[in-house]
Amino acid sequence: MELTDWLLTPDERGNSATRLDSRRSDRAAWSHGNLVRPLIHGGTYFPELLGAVRAQRAGDLLLFTDWRGDPDERLDGPGSEIGVVLGEAAGRGVIVKGLLWRSHLDRFQFSEAENRHLGEEVEAAGGECLLDMRVRPGGSHHQKLVVLRHPDRPELDIAFVGGIDLCHNRHDDATHRGDPQSLPLAAAYGPHPPWHDIQLAIRGPAVGDIETVFRERWDDPAPLTRSPLVRLRELAHGEDTDADALPPQAPDPAPRGTHTLQVLRTYPNRLLRGYDFAPDGERSIARGYRKALRRARALIYLEDQYLWSPHVVESFAEALTANRGLRLIAVIPSVPEQDGRLTRPINLIGRITALDRLRRAGGGRVAVYGLENHAGTPVYVHAKVCVIDDVWVSVGSDNINLRSWTHDSELSCAVLDETTDPRDPRDPGGLGDGARRFARNLRLELAREHLDLEAPRTPLAPDPLCDPVHSFEAFAASAAALDHWHDNGRRGARPPGRLRTYRPPSLSRTARTVCTPLHRLLVDPDGRPFGLRRRNDY
Predict the structure, then answer these.
(1) How far is the C-alpha of 508 from the C-alpha of 357, rounded, in Å?
(2) What Rg value do the Cα atoms of the chain yield, rounded?
(3) How far apart are CA 344 and CA 16, in angstroms?
(4) pLDDT classification of 464: cutoffs 50, 70, 90
């Protein structure tokens, strides 16, 4: 397998201004020798993050970006509130720097107030946390990363990247009883919405790449906001608006494993003046997906919060049309997160249109599911995961929609394991690439959770789920059994599994007519340059 079959070259990234593809002596657009571990659910991620931060000492470096941060969210019980933990680190002499999104519309219950409070706690303890509004109108900074560097102990260097924010609702586990510190979603999710999510823990040279993502944003000379009203408010409240200089970047950590990792991003094409490190924006997440999808032959496994936009799913539809043996499994939220009479159909119209396109392309080879916990409460799927043919994996902050591929800042990691899976090293796609251990293990771990299956006692024992067709059929059978149990009044023992067949509600022709333009304008905007929009290119 050639890495360029699956990963982007610097030219294919399409952003010559970034340091990501020129910072290594070999000019490689990815790093080798990493150890990447999936941390499924906040209940796994948060305690590990807590231990890593508490192990830092004076002179170490802690960098983080987030869409929303709730300072009182506990990482692992009382006394582990994220604001307290970051403040204690700064108090020990750790250099703490953060970038949090400043929302345009906090009255719509986005994240500005909470992010300001977290930033104030960090600043009061001696760290520095900036509220960043350098986005397109209606856009957000959606990247979720934490980087921990240790100049005298580089073996401890680690980065965390994925879909889990440092905020309420995220601290759930595989039982899906929800986070005790919850914010309300749609009524169907109950008072403590069950939450399914994933973050990556990364050790090795790629930590330097993730740090570079932070540094490029931190060092951007553009002001944090263009709004004169916001700038006046910053002055009135004495907010920190000037980023202090970061210490020089340390050499990349030594190799730790067998995983090749490429950092993929979205930055929009900002009007008037773009980002210093991405003057025309960057759409390497979209380009990375499109390149990998062209090699898909057996199974695309998706977990996604939205799965919206016919423009974006067109790449998946083209793969399904071109390869009649290709199947797609998608796990998504059963119910939109909002109940509003207008917001609900505006959210649904993008998904209904996207699924119609996928089913026209793949027919019965496309299967879409929601999740529920054992009490029958829907699970809100916030994960952003794609596994293609047990070779290529993407985990990040990005969803399958136009907003994530073009409009908001996003961060994702594409991972290729250099070792094949000894259980069944044959290539599911038939292209000679060989099933890769990391990709297959991640897909099987997620599948077992959804199917209520125990992992084999021997890690490399033969597993029928390795076969893409068997996996596809196992998901279908499990969902059918649970659907039948519900349809028959829940009589008898509940079948194992958490999968429910996704049945989108119907929308009237009037609702479709009204909601389609609103969805495109408000919910799923396009951040591409106009020339690319005309060609539907990225």
Answers:
(1) 18
(2) 22
(3) 40
(4) very high
